[in-house]
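(Protein data)
===
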Amino acid sequence: MASSEGLSIDQLRRDAKRLKRGWEAGEAQARDRIAVHPPRKDQDALRHADFLHVIAQETGFASWPALKEAAELMGLDRAQKQQRLKIALYHGQNGVVARLLADAPDLAHGVFGLGCALYDKTEVLRLLSDDPGLATRALGPRRPILHLAFSRWIHARPDLQDDMLAIAEALLAHGADVNDGYPHAPGSDHLLSALYGAIGHADNMVLGRWLLDHGADPNDGESLYHATELGHHEGLRLLLGAGADPKGTNALLRAMDFHDHEAVAMLLAHGARADDFQSADVGGEAPWVAPALHQAARRGSDRRMVELLLEAGADPARTYKGAAAYPYACVFGNRAVQDALEARGAQVPLSREEALMAGAARGEDRAGAYVDPGVLPEAYADIIREILHLPGRMDQVQRLVALGLPYDRPDAEGLTPVQLAGWEGLPDMLRYILSLKPDLSHVNGYGGTLLSTIIHGSENAPDRESRDHITCLEIALHEGVALPRNAIRFAGREDVAAFLGDWADRHPGQVV
């Protein structure tokens, strides 16, 4: 696909027709584009409007009517820049925000949601005085208080803190709801609240405190869980101090993912139960949580963490998807859990399959031996995907592959091991899994390809500062994956965008 920069609506319509012809001819590139932006479940009956939808999504708009309306109001180029600004503010791509505003200082002028997200008090108050109803009117999928709460601009402009709070006060005075939210997914009745936006999404403690002081509900089903991911405890303290109940939130298990002993202790002190986990999440089963000792085993928790859990009542006899805690710890190679359970006399025998996999964790090679997938407990189905990011696990992964464990199986979110290796920014693991010839056309449950998953990881993976996502991108591109031009445009890290732009210049035939 050609770049959408400077294109007209008519040119984009022609691109939709080309996409339709490519789809009908079975072209791989067209199939991949439809898979990333599926217009409907029944892909055997796609109409022209469906291909227009894909073009709109690729251009950064939710739908073709939204793109067309914006283009007619202000011209396609300005509409695209405004849309890029909205995305950058939401995702915390503050360098992109600064560049867009430097290029067009009036880009957000007259756009109420953008004014809120940029903490432009003067503009927001001016627009409110002209039309007080703006405070409660939906602007796209979110109302203004949500544009304010989900903005990450505070990290670039902390000097605008007072203006941000003044906007919050003005919105509240004009009828905004501090417990407002928007659907987690189209058609879902699970809402992502303003409080979650401020604390869990934007790491904006100032606004989070303001929302709680003005009646926001700390038990919104999201904020406490995501407050464990911030690398500090201010959000947890705010929420627990406001009466947040950890039970049923999976916050304890999420804190364990980061080996955060203090957060785990705080949550236990406020009523979290060690074996209380919610296995059903929005959209189905939550594969990232398990009973506490199983979670400790697969996340590489240390003995201190395991003792905290056992003292809080974690049950060594609890099973998870057909696996007891002790064999599970042996298979995942976690000595801390094994030792703690052995000290309590809680070890149980391993099955043949568990013994083979535990041997792989200990470094044993069993040439010619294979696990029987027919009897393998479901608990171990995604073990390669679950351990590949842990330090020093390459040999274990290779031994598990030799035993016949699936190395290209999508998990409940549609993520495959090769995509996770890229998301984590692990070049050696990525090279190894690519040597096994996984399906590079796979699109995960978030609409991500291998390339876009690596880019997303470069901006969002917890350990991104110490990982090498650019080398992962280079490996994937050498493998022949396509480089969508919009991947360059939407990359939030300057070094990633520069690398992709340079690659596009040197390999124009790979750009779609």
